[in-house]
């Protein structure tokens, strides 16, 4: 059952916190076999990855940059990159043999690992695709077919969040609007005070979707919105969707695995997608699309790039979309080895990332005299921090230029967000930064950001001074 | 040097811009080539470049540099490096294939993806009533299986009709192909139907034949076919590609097969038209609506490095005498020479005449092996891999009633062919190993039935 993907580690054999493929952190030692037992040291304080090992794993990151934007493109430790190269070389060495003998079984192993991690029922419910953008195309193409083939009535609704990712919105336009579906965007408040605000707005959105005797065929909900970034109360929203007779719920959790708790049975959605290269240390790029077996339409999902596997189920279709480099999808089992070098495995990492990002965020809020975009319990490993009002952020263009300015002048990488002032607000905070915290980050990164912004404030800097 | 000069002045050189010609002293050596492909498994006769291609070590190195650039500071790369790098690759390709405008060239993963793009568009036209249900898509029966499935998924599903043209094989002349194609077009237009799309392979995969694609496209124009899609998965690096001369609406070729790119990258050419083209990448990003080249340049976070190394590949091929043209000519000549050697040794035939081959040749297998099904051919292929360390695809030729077929020297019917490939890393010993393997199987009176028992 154990894969032979990685050579046994002799000298630095760590006391592994959990079985190789365990989906959640466990306190006990799971003894798999006699040889495993023998390899473990007899008296065993945990021998977790050290700070200097972490630095070494991410030594390929540009040392001149203050990198506090893990949310956009993620990161990948060098030991995983090395495994990825092994896979690439295996194919290049003898591609026919690799294709006929290894590719599919090894992709199945990756799917099995993911299935356990996300508490899915069957391996078949897990398909591996490039990224959440691809997953969205798959789900929305199915919705488009249903409209075109008359399964759905023209004008039936698809409900999504206003803060849905730009690419997903375009996908909805390309597939749903074009085939006759009616799209409703749920406006969410920002800053947000509580989960209830979101739940209330969502209910209103569903009502609008059902107006005039229409059906809501699909609810497309982010687990963690991208910009502005907020953790959405996804379990409650799914329950509401079920009560209100929504046909299908699709959760876009690009920032899911490694960021928030991802338990398919608990969440109860029909479709759920998450990138592994953002918060789960995979190389670019790999994501999973979970499709509940019992869901209507599950059998109607197809990868848009049709190969000779067409009709064999989405998981199999996705495992062959023509000749390409599947190495990022093959390293998934190795990633578990990596995260299990940390105390608490991936759950420990999530917890510490959350605590650190809140702590750093609070430090910034205090120093700048601003506020968070949401309460700490509605954030995971990213948080929106208000920028000082005196910087004069007054448009999308301002924040875009500010981001470039921070990158080029100060070598700080951080995404920025413009929050338009609402009527009646006095001196509102209109600019936010989204800070991320991942295992390679240090407090100095955020101190630097703090000081640079304070420096700009001291110098009387205003965004209008930035050239376009 | 003389050969180079002749090629430079050659009026049939349709290249928009002449490739850089290396100084004689700088040409790649045998040992350089061995070193470039040192990562290939040794001890096997790797004579199947056609399926998965190859990539030299120096290009893999260039690819790693691109990968590291992204990993180092991904935002910076996304905002400042990626699109410029992709445009550089597209520009090299655009020049190579004689496109009018670099905007006609998109980069996608592979030909399978391009087929999905074209067929999704056609499917939408059927769905939205722009095409009538009886309107047809015409293709060859030996079109790549993925393309056929794509037609099923996007065209048949919405009620569009298809007409399959049976490629004669073995084939003796272009006229044979042209003749059956004309018949296929007639069928497609019967009863006042319109042929909305013709899909033509530039080089068929199995069985492998170089098609008279220019003539076929011309016939399509004459016969009022609305759009022509040339699936040229094997073309670039195998045969001269001049998209203007060929004249198709859509043309796709993989660069990881015969153009030394790492997996995977293909160029997808869409002839500029005055009206809205309505082709879109199926993975929709925020670039939707900005034109296919831009849409394809960002389909979400992924590794675009294989699409960025095209300029490095040009440097590689230009280390060879005659650049890519020299490589193509030598691959063809060697493949034919080896093919004839095998046909002679086995008493069989070539599947097509030399001028209808590229760097790949189909050679009949001795009838005594009794290949009687696709399963048999798959088994024989595995057997050759496992017991003789020969990697070569085997094709089962299912003859239909009334077809005569070709006989071998033993007067048995030839029912199977191997497809040999020749690329710069191949040696004569590779083909001799195949020759001897088959000869031994024949001597030991092995048939496919025996093989399954082994």
What does this 3D model show about the protein?
Chain A: Keywords: Pyridoxal phosphate. The complex is a heterodimer of chains A (468) and B (454). With 468 residues, chain A is an alpha/beta fold. In chain A, 40% of the residues lie in helices and 12% in strands. Chain A has a seven-stranded mixed sheet, sandwiched between helices. Chain A has a three-stranded antiparallel sheet with strand order 9-12-11. The longest helix of chain A has 24 residues. Chain A is globular, with a radius of gyration of 23 Å. The relative contact order of chain A is 0.14. With 454 residues, chain B is an alpha/beta fold. In chain B, the strands form three sheets. Chain B has a seven-stranded mixed sheet with strand order 2-8-7-6-5-3-4, sandwiched between helices. A three-stranded antiparallel sheet of chain B has the order 9-12-11. In chain B, strands 1-10 form a two-stranded parallel sheet. In chain B, α6 runs parallel beside α7 and α8 packs parallel to α9. The interface between A and B is large, with 67 and 65 residues.
Query: Outline of chain A, from the CA principal axes?
Result: globular
Measured between the Cα atoms of the first and last residue of chain B, the distance is 54 Å
Order of helices and strands of chain B: HHEHHHEHEHEHEHEHEHEHHHHEHEEEHH
Mean pLDDT across every amino acid position of chain B? 93
Question: How many β-strands of chain B, per DSSP?
Answer: 12
Query: What fraction of the residues of chain B are assigned to beta strands by DSSP?
Result: 5-15%
Broad structural category of chain B? alpha/beta
Arithmetic mean of pLDDT of chain A = 91
Radius of gyration based on Cα positions of chain B: 23 Å
Total strands of chain A: the figure is: 12
Question: Residue share in helices of chain A?
Answer: 40-55%
Relative strand content of chain A: 5-15%
In DSSP terms (H or I, runs of 4 or more residues), the helix count of chain B works out at 18
Specify which chain pair forms the largest interface: A-B, 67 and 65 residues
């Amino acid at each position: 059952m154990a894969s032979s993907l990685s050579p046994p580690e002799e000298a630095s054999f760590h006391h592994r916190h959990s079985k190789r493929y365990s989906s959640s952190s466990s306190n006990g030692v799971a003894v798999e076999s006699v040889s495993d037992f023998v390899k473990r040291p007899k008296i065993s304080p945990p021998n977790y990855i050290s700070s200097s090992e972490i630095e070494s794993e991410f030594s390929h990151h540009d040392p001149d940059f203050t990198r506090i934007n893990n949310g956009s493109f993620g990161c990948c430790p060098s030991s995983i990159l090395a495994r990825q190269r092994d896979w690439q070389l295996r194919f290049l060495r003898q591609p026919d043999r690799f294709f006929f003998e290894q590719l599919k079984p090894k992709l199945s192993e990756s799917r099995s690992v993911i299935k356990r991690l996300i508490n899915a029922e069957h391996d078949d419910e897990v398909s591996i695709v490039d990224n959440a953008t691809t997953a969205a195309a798959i789900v929305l193409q199915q919705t488009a077919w249903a409209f075109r083939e008359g399964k759905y009535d023209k004008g039936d609704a698809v409900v999504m969040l206003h803060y849905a990712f730009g690419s997903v919105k375009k996908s909805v336009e390309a597939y749903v609007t074009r085939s006759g579906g009616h799209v409703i965007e749920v406006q969410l408040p920002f800053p947000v005070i509580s989960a209830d605000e979101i739940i209330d707005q969502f209910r209103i959105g569903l009502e609008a979707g059902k107006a005039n005797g229409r059906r809501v065929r699909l609810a497309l909900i982010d687990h963690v919105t991208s910009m502005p970034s907020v953790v959405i109360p996804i379990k409650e929203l799914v329950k509401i969707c079920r009560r209100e007779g929504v046909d299908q719920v699709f959760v876009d959790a690009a920032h899911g695995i490694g960021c928030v708790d991802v338990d398919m049975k608990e969440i109860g959605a029909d479709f759920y997608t998450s990138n592994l290269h953002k918060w789960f240390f995979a190389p670019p790029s790999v994501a999973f699309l979970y499709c509940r077996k019992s869901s209507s339409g599950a059998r109607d999902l197809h990868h848009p790039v049709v190969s000779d596997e067409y009709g064999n189920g989405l998981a199999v279709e996705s495992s062959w979309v023509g000749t390409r480099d599947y190495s990022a999808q093959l390293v998934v089992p190795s990633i578990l080895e990596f995260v299990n070098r940390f105390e608490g495995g991936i759950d420990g990492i999530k917890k510490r990332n959350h605590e650190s990002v809140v702590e750093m965020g609070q430090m910034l809020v205090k120093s700048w005299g601003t506020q968070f975009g949401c309460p700490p319990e509605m954030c995971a490993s990213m948080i929106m921090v208000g920028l000082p009002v005196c910087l004069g952020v007054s448009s999308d263009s301002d924040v875009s230029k500010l981001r470039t300015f921070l990158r080029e002048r100060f070598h700080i990488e951080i995404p920025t967000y413009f929050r338009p002032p609402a009527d009646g607000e006095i001196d509102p905070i209109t600019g936010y930064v989204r800070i991320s915290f991942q295992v390679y980050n240090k407090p100095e990164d955020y101190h630097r950001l703090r000081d640079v912004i304070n420096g700009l404030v001291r110098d009387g800097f205003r965004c209008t001074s930035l050239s376009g | 040097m003389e050969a180079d000069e002749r090629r430079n002045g050659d009026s049939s050189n349709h290249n928009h811009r002449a490739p850089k010609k290396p100084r004689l002293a700088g040409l790649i050596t045998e040992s350089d080539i061995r070193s470039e492909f040192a990562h290939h498994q040794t001890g096997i006769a790797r004579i199947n470049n056609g399926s998965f291609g190859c990539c030299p070590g120096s290009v893999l190195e260039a690819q790693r540099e691109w990968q590291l650039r992204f990993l180092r500071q991904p935002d910076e790369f996304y905002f400042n490096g990626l699109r410029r790098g992709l445009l550089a690759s597209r520009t090299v390709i655009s020049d190579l294939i004689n496109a009018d405008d670099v905007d006609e060239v998109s980069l996608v993963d592979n030909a399978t993806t391009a087929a999905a793009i074209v067929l999704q568009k056609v499917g939408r036209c059927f769905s939205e009533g722009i095409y009538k249900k009886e309107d047809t898509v015409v293709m060859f029966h030996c079109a790549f299986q993925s393309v056929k499935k794509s037609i099923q998924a996007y065209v048949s599903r919405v009620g569009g009709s298809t007409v399959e043209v049976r490629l004669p094989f073995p084939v003796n002349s272009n006229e044979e192909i042209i003749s059956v194609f004309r018949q296929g077009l007639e069928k497609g237009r019967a009863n006042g139907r319109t042929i909305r799309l013709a899909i033509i392979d530039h080089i068929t995969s199995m069985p492998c034949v170089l098609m008279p694609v220019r003539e076929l496209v011309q016939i399509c124009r004459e016969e009022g076919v609305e759009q022509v899609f040339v699936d040229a998965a094997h073309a670039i690096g195998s045969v001269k590609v001049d998209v203007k001369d060929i004249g198709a609406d859509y043309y796709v070729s993989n660069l990881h097969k015969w153009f030394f790119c790492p997996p995977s990258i293909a160029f997808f050419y869409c002839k500029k038209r005055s009206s809205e083209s309505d082709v879109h990448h199926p993975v929709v990003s925020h670039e939707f609506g900005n034109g296919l080249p831009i849409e394809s340049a960002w389909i979400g976070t992924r590794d675009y490095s294989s699409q960025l190394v095209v300029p490095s590949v040009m440097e590689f091929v230009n280390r060879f005498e005659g650049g890519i043209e020299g490589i193509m000519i030598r691959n063809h000549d060697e493949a034919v020479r080896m093919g004839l050697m095998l046909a002679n040794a086995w008493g069989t035939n070539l599947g097509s005449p030399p001028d209808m081959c590229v760097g790949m040749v189909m050679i009949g297998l001795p009838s005594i092996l009794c290949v009687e099904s696709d399963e048999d051919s798959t088994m024989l292929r595995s057997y050759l891999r496992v017991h003789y360390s020969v990697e070569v695809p085997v094709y089962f030729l299912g003859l239909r009633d009334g077809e005569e077929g070709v006989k071998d020297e033993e007067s048995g019917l030839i029912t199977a062919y191997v497809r040999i490939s020749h690329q710069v890393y191949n040696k004569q010993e590779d083909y001799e190993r195949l020759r001897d393997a088959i000869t031994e199987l024949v001597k030991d009176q092995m048939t496919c039935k025996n093989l399954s028992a082994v």
